[in-house]
Amino acid sequence: MEPKLSNMKLVADFKSADFDGVVVVASSVNDIPHDVLKTPLKSILDVDAAAGQGVFVAAGNEVKRIIFSGTGPLDKDYDDVRSFAEAAEKGVKRAIEAGCEAPMLYVQNTERFPEAETVAMLGALKALYVPLEVREQVPSKATKVKSIGFFDSGKSAEKLKLAQALEMGRIVSRDIGGSDPERMAAPRIEDYVRKTFENSSVKVEVIEGQETFLKEYPCLAAVNRCASGQERHDGRVIWLTYEPKSFRPVEKTVMLVGKGITYDTGGADIKAGGIMAGMSRDKCGAADVAGFLKVVDILKPNNVKVVGAMAVVRNSIGSNCYVSDEIITSRAGVRLRVGNTDAEGRMVMVDVLCHMKEKALKEVNPHLFTIATLTGHAWLAVGPYTAIMDNGPAKMEGFAQKLQATGELFGDPFEVSTIRREDYNLIKCKGEYVDVIQCNNLPSSRTPRGHQFPGAFLNSVSGLDKHMSSSEHPIKYSHLDVAGSSGDLPHPPNAATVVPLAMHFL
């Protein structure tokens, strides 16, 4: 079932008969300027003063029901705009539990957080997401409400249009990233992507076949070797391209490679001891690439070209799986020795990144990205945030800090990390056999700088290290590790990079 949103519209009257409840997101009941909402809510607080610290429902005099979901005072230095998304999501969920079939969202204005209304809209829409398998297998549960309204603050129309586009992108990312290993095995991801971008402004090209991978993407081919024996698991590299159809010249080219491991057993270095569960979420990087392209398709920027690549492979275990100690020559001609088959994410991306680099040399102002649920170390180091690492050319324009600022505005925070000389030293082979060691023999979570040194691997093995700041053709490159920010089962993925990337570039 293709992604879609519930019926949405702006509303100027709280008493509209089209809606059966108002979800109020505000710092406190006393701060609400509308008596039609404030008076019934205060009557509850007069009986239970603690109610204002959470989410509660009141019967209205002129509105059937009012659901208050407070953000709290938000006067501390460490408070951020996510409180609005969280309050809106909780409020809409509580409204549905109370019997609402058509809730309306009202967000109290705030000067400190200029995008609070958009962020709250996104939180409300997140509450309405229904996983793909449920939509397909239980059609009666395909939607949670008949419609949702948003109170018009005077500038809400533009914000709602933007929130709709961003949420459509997040739905695509959640569908791909969150679905089970069979529903979103590589061939079925291809089918989903083709349907999503059918008759759209995004061109879809698919590369498949183990023999083709061996020629074009030898590192990816090593990971795919075992899965290629099962047709339903055989890998794909899915290229998505958007070119603006306007007379305005392209000013920048955004080029993204996403890790799409449909299931990660660890390969021969198998994930043992119960830690394999949840590894269907190892495709959230590729999912975010597709989600970002969906936003691009809707907003259709006229000065930005976007090229995305989804490296979609299953890391299977069996008699044909790749193993540690194998020596592989990458697309860029770099000879590497496999150190751990559970470090497969960098393997499936690195040759695709090299291919993207080759394309970038012919593009206007290119900026390359890798997006991946790459390391447990990122989760340990930065918790539930995206770790971003710039190469030299990207660092010269302060890109990581700028994207971090965008994430702060729209409620998807980043933490900035740095790729340093120690990371390049770690991957250097100390012997004569190869140029680079793919990985050490410890889990990333037990390796110092465990989420930074894979960035050095991607730079070196893709050949991007030939395009540093001092080179004849510098190329901007940023690596985004979303291992902590993508979200875990049983909840839907967060699609953590879709909104910040869209708001920064589009």
Proportion of residues in β-strands: 15-25%
Q: Would you identify the regions where 5 or more consecutive residues have pLDDT less than 50?
A: none
Q: What fold name stands as the CATH topology of the largest domain?
A: Aminopeptidase
- What count of helical segments does DSSP give? 16
Number of domains: 2
Q: What does the main sheet amount to?
A: 8 strands, mixed
CATH hierarchy, class of the largest domain: Alpha Beta
Walk me through the structure:
This protein has 506 residues and is an alpha/beta fold. It folds into 2 domains: 7-154, Leucine Aminopeptidase, subunit E, domain 1, CATH 3.40.220.10; 176-505, Zn peptidases (Aminopeptidase, 3-Layer(aba) Sandwich). Helix content is 36%, strand content 20%. The strands form 3 sheets. It has an 8-stranded mixed beta sheet with strand order 7-8-10-9-13-17-14-15, with helices on both faces. It has a 6-stranded mixed beta sheet with strand order 1-6-5-2-4-3, with helices on both faces. It starts with 6 loop residues before the first strand and ends with a helix. 52% of the residues are buried. The model has no long low-confidence stretch (mean pLDDT 95).
